[in-house]
Every structure is written in C-alpha cells, then in structure tokens.
Amino acid sequence: MPPTILVVDDELSMREFLKILLTKEGYTTETAVDGEDALSKIEKNSIDLVISDIRMPGVGGLELLSTIKQSQPTLPFIIITAFASPDDAVQAMKHGAYDYITKPFKVDEIKSVIHSALESKKNSEENNKETPAALFHNIIGESPEIQHVFDQISRVAPTHANVLIYGESGTGKELIAQAIHQNSNASRNHFVPIICNAIPESLFESELFGHIKGSFTGATTNKLGLLELADNGTAFLDEIGELSLMVQTKLLRFLQEREFKRVGDTKIRKVNVRIISATNRDLEQEILAKRFREDLFYRLAVVPLRMPPLRERKGDVPLLTQHFLEKYAQTFNKEVPQLSSYAMEVLMNYDFPGNVRELENIIERGVALSTSNLILPESLTLADAHRKADESPVEIDSPQLQTPLSGTKSTTVPEEDLFEQGLEKVIINLEKEMIELALVRANQSKMKAAELLKISFRSLRYKIKKYNIN
Ligand SMILES: Nc1ncnc2c1ncn2[C@@H]1O[C@H](COP(=O)(O)OP(=O)(O)OP(=O)(O)O)[C@@H](O)[C@H]1O
Ligand SMILES: [Mg+2]
C-alpha cells in the first residue's frame, strides 16, 4: 500500500498543489485546513507523514506538532515555514519536527525531504525491533549537566535536524556527534568526519563535492566527494568556525538547494545527508566580526547543543577518572591502580583548562609512571595556574612516602604554599595517604596494614572511619 501523507494548510491553493504533486508521485493524500481538522483526520486514517504549514488560524503548526508528538512520537512531521523566519524552523525542530522546508520551495526539494522522512520512519521501525536502548555507553558521566546532554541527544537524534555542537576544546564534542549518529535512523549508514581546518581552501570543494577527471591539475581520476560518501548518513563538519568565507558560501548553497555538482561536472546530484557540526569558537562573536555567515549559522545550528566544560560538572571527575584508570591499566598491562584520596581531592580542586582530554592525559601519565597500586598527587601533572589557590595541593617531601613509590623527587613547592594549607591539613593528608598506601600493600587487610603502620588495629579502624577511607 502506498504511504499516506496528510497535508495541512489553510490556503486552498497550497493544499491543491501538494495534493496533485503527491498523488502524481504515487502517495495517497489527505488534506486538512487547520490543526484541529488535522487531528481528527489522524484519528480516522492511518497517516505515515504530516506536512504542515506553520501559521494557520486556530491550532497552528507548532501546536499540532507538539500534540502529535505526544501520542505518535515516530510519525514524521515536516513543517513549512516562511522564508524570512529561521526562528520558526528552530522552534519546529525543537518540538521534534523531522525537517522543515522554507517557502518558496522547489518541487524536487519537497520530494527529497518526503522521501527521506518516510525512509527514516521505516528504518526506525526496523531499528526499534532490534535495538531499543539508546547508546551512550562510551560517554561517561552522571552529573545533571551531562544528563541534560543525554536528553538532548535522545530528542534530536531521531530527527533530521542539523545540529551544531559548541564548547571548549576537549569537552567531548566528537563523541557527542557520534552518539547522535548512532542513535539516529541513519546509524547503519556512514558517519563521515570532515575536519574543516585540515583541508586547504583550494581543495575544499573537490573534497566535499568530488571532481571529475581532468577538471584541474592533479585531478587524474574521478573522485567521489565526502558528501556523497555520507549519503543517507551523517557528515560531521568539525572545526566549522575555521572555514573561509568563500567555502562557507559554497556550503550554504548546498544546504539551501540540497544539490551540488562535482567540480568540473555539469550533472546535478542530490544527497540526503544530515549535518552535525562542531566548533570551539564563539560563532555569534564570529558573525559580529563578519568572519562567519549568519545565514549559514542558522542552517547549521537548527539545534544548538552546548557541551559544558569539565569544571562546570566536577561531579563527573571521579567516574571519568575510574574509566581512564581502567582504560590505561589495560593499555599498559598493569593492575588497575587507585587514586589516593588526596590525589582525588587535588583533581576535584583543579580547573581542567583542557577538559576531559586533559584529565585523560593526566591519568594516562599517572598510570604509566605509577610503580605501585596507589597513585599519589605527585604523579599527577597539572598546570599550576589552574589549581585553586586556596586549596593548593602540597607535595610533601617525605622520603618514606616517596622513595619506594616513584623514585623521583617531587618538584619543590614554594614555602608560602606549604604554609597556606596549615600544618594540621598537611598532617591529615599525609596520614590519610600513609593509611591508603599501607592498605594497598597489605592487600586491604587491616590487621597487616596496622602492623606496617606500627599502630594498633583499633586505632587504624578509627582513623579509617574518621577519614572516610574505603
Ligand atoms: N564524557 C566522556 N566520556 C569518556 N571520554 C570522553 C568524554 N568526553 C571526552 N572524552 C574523551 O576525551 C577526548 C576528547 O574528546 P573529543 O575529541 O570528543 O573532544 P572535542 O570537544 O571534540 O575537542 P576539540 O575541540 O579539541 O576537538 C577523547 O579522547 C574522548 O574520547
Ligand atoms: Mg573535536
């Protein structure tokens, strides 16, 4: 049976036009004059796709969309917006529209959007049979901030909306882009990363769109562009803020027309590609400085997604640390070490200017250098300027603690920093670390640890409780 499409528009001419077009394409077509009418048609008929105008008297397109998403979240919804209102498009995508089309549109454009929406519905029904759960397993975190990101991924992944991920370097933007692809209906097709600043401006067009043999010096064969490779899948445009204005214009044209030509070719080609882009620049600032096109920004950032820096979600540091300890223990073929509680405290008080990537490097080095199962603060290489002054960690030059562990002498700490902590805190930290070290040496036997520390079992038990050592 051919798919049934419901066309919702208050203008008779538009309804008629779409009805003729869609019937010619072999679809069954229903029409409705406004949101209310549409809801009753949906109740009575089995509809596979809705195309709706946004502005209508009574129940408008956005309201209709939200209502439908509650009862039939997988029913694809395409919204038709006026050319001049990118905000409407953004709102529509936020409410879960599959895609949007701006008026005036080309017949080919609407045909290709409909085709890909119906494909995606089919894929999602098949996918749902096999893999119901969302795949975030490789993104570590439990803070409310990262949960919010997971929410956004779940909501945006099944749509066809272009997503712009922005945030500081090392926050996990690429990981998020992959998660969106994996959780989308295009997950079985290619995810093609395109590192914008790695492609010279003169080659960009040919890399993106492909070229034909002899079209320029060096074009010795026909070449498929990256966008064609990503057909029915996702193209990930990384470092989008680095694109030159000339390249931005070419990319914008492709996004508007949904078609392109290979360099040197006359044939017009079409692809169905979802674009996820990422940047660590402030694009709004770049727009003001006239280095980034505003119209391109609106095409790319239909759904903007901010990756918070690690210092705003310190709650994830312990889990990430554990993850990287395990990862690098395996890499270096060692037992999984522990971080001393003071070393953990040092991390919790650190700002991580390089975000998760920096934490990963810190732990990698810590594991590589560790000679026992306990990693102490001196094995953590942090940028001094980003340690919190009031909690400045103190590296204690204590031969008992250091020599057997690292064999290297720790860097000397300025005397003022030492005093800033106060004697009591230094002693407590030292004591905690000695106990943790003894427990590791004694294979967690409190009796043996007490012997090593030359204190009574009871006193050790008391201190373990007091310092909350596990
Ligand atoms: N939540 C996370 N869980 C596990 N690993 C993570 C997480 N976030 C980031 N990483 C790891 O940190 C490193 C940096 O992440 P990624 O490359 O995605 O960052 P980015 O935001 O794209 O950085 P840049 O702007 O420098 O390209 C990667 O090795 C990635 O696997
Ligand atoms: Mg990146």
Structural write-up:
- The longest helix has 24 residues.
- About 5% of the residues have low confidence.
- Helix 13 crosses helix 15.
- Strand 3, helix 3 and strand 4 form a beta-alpha-beta unit.
- With 470 residues, the protein is α/β, with parallel strands linked by helices.
- The strands form five sheets. The protein has a five-stranded parallel sheet, with helices on both faces. A five-stranded parallel sheet has the order 7-10-13-6-14. Strands 8-9 form a two-stranded antiparallel ribbon.
- The chain contains 20 helices and 16 strands.
- Helix content is 46%, strand content 13%.
- It folds into three domains: 127 residues, Response regulator (Rossmann fold, 3-Layer(aba) Sandwich), CATH 3.40.50.2300; 165 residues, 3-Layer(aba) Sandwich (Rossmann fold), CATH 3.40.50.300; 156 residues, Orthogonal Bundle (Helicase, Ruva Protein, domain 3).
- The chain is elongated, with a radius of gyration of 29 Å.
- The site of adenosine-5'-triphosphate has 15 residues, from helix 7 and helix 15.
